[in-house]
Amino acid sequence: MVESLTGRLREEIVRRQQAGLLRQLTHGDLIDFTSNDYLGLARSEELWNLISQRSEELGVHFNGATGSRLLSGNSALAEQVEHDLAHIFQGETALLFNSGYAANLGVLSALPLRNDTILYDELSHASIKDGARLSLAKKFSFRHNDLNDLEAKLRRSEGHCFVVVESIYSMDGDRCPLRELTALAATYDATLVLDEAHSTGVDGVRGEGMAVAMGLSDRVGVRIYTFGKAMGCHGACVVGPAALKDYLVNTSRPFIYTTALPPHALLTISGAFTFLQKHPELAEQLHANVSLFAGTMMKSSVPHAFSDSAIQRVNFPGNDNVNAAARYLQDKGFDVRSIRKPTVPEGAERLRICLHAFNKAEEITALAEEIIKLNAVSGFTQERAR
Question: Side by side, which strands form the sheet with 311-315?
């Protein structure tokens, strides 16, 4: 039995390798243009010291939460952090989850009921699609940021409709048309679910995300904030009315049956937001770096899809082609990764470049120059960014 399974697994690994789809774990000391640590909080010694100081002051010495929140894993600290997060995100309540992935699964598997409808943007994160699959509701995708396609499907939806979008999309770094989406959802009495993963910590005066920054927080039914990106730590929370929190505590399996976040993780989340309030220059530097890279690329003939977010895209269609492009840049000292089919559609393979507040201007310029050189190398055929 074991030998049969091993043989089957090896065949699948070889198949993936031949198709240019094999994923591997790597690490190194290249210049970071791939992590989600947009503001550098994950590597901040000052933040580390702040968290350690708070831990000592509060006498927090538990290594783990000891159980799920509904058993032994709840604490005054967890409730205080949720209270503070609700205040930051201008919501009535907040409920902590162990990750953004778990939060999306927890919301979409529990809120939509049988005979309801989920409509999600076709470029939504895998966690949104997986959460929808776990639901008993009907589920359909709509064309990316296409309000006409969404409205046509809203007209045909059954039961209560949940429209699921992201503030900033992880593959292209583009934004959803949030103001128009809130108006459309209101017209059809649908609930808008907004995943703020890539805007948390970056948009807004205090890193409150897109909805708060645009003054639309009260028009979005469910908001999901992730702390594993710009906030440099781990965990997530769902923000909304008190009834939403009570409902999820009673029905959301990823919340009910998961050991709670440990005390140190809770202090890290709290400390990260305190730290961010004291250092608004981090977001300012990030936006300056985004402008530097995008401005340099736009002066060239390289197919580059401009984004005002930390996520930038450069097209290199074909899995083999984009893998070779990534290796070329890695050999030059830049940690840049390829995004391949099936994560993106065939022909849309690209380099996904993440910019950070800590990237130096000379590093950004050097990366842009290498991409421009790469674009001119024979064999690296490209097409214009769509």
Answer: 304-305, 311-315, 350-354, 337-339
Among 112, 159, 158, smallest CA distance to 131 is for: 112
Residue 211 confidence (pLDDT): 98
CB atoms within 10 A of CB 289: 21
Q: For residue 250, what pLDDT is reported?
A: 98
Q: Provide the pairing of β-strand 161-166 with 337-339.
A: unpaired
Q: Residue ranges per domain, the chain? A: 25-44+280-376, 62-277
Work out whether strand 304-305 and strand 311-315 pair parallel, antiparallel, or are unpaired: antiparallel
For residue 159, what are its two tokens? 């039961």
Residues of the chain below pLDDT 70: 1, 303-305, 377-386
CB 142 within 8 A of CB 153: yes
b/e per residue 213-252 (b: at least 16 CB within 10 A)? bbebbebbbbbbbbbbbbbbbbbbbbbbeeebbeebeeeb
Rounded to the nearest 5°, which phi and psi values hold at 192? -90, 125
pLDDT at position 378 is 43
* DSSP 3-state percent helix, strand, coil across the chain (nearest 5): 45, 15, 40
Phi, psi torsion values for 120, nearest 5 degrees: -125, 145
Name the amino acid, one letter, at 269.
I
- CATH classification for the domain delimited by 25-44+280-376, as one of 3.90.1150.10, 3.40.50.300, 3.30.70.890, 3.40.190.10: 3.90.1150.10
Residue 176, both tokens: 């959803």
The pLDDT of residue 1: 67
Residue-level pLDDT at 319: 85
Sign of CA dihedral 84, 85, 89, 90: negative
Instruction: Identify the CATH assignment for 62-277 out of 3.40.640.10, 3.30.420.40, 3.40.50.2300, 3.30.70.1030.
Output: 3.40.640.10
In contact, 21 and 322? CB cutoff 8 Å: no
- What are the residues whose beta carbons fall under 8 Å from the beta carbon of 293, sequence distance 6 or more? 312, 353, 355, 364, 367, 368
Q: Does the CA dihedral 267-269-271-274 come out positive or negative? A: negative
The pLDDT value recorded for residue 376 is: 74
What separation in angstroms does the CA of 332 have from each of 60, 163, 194, 369? 44, 43, 38, 11
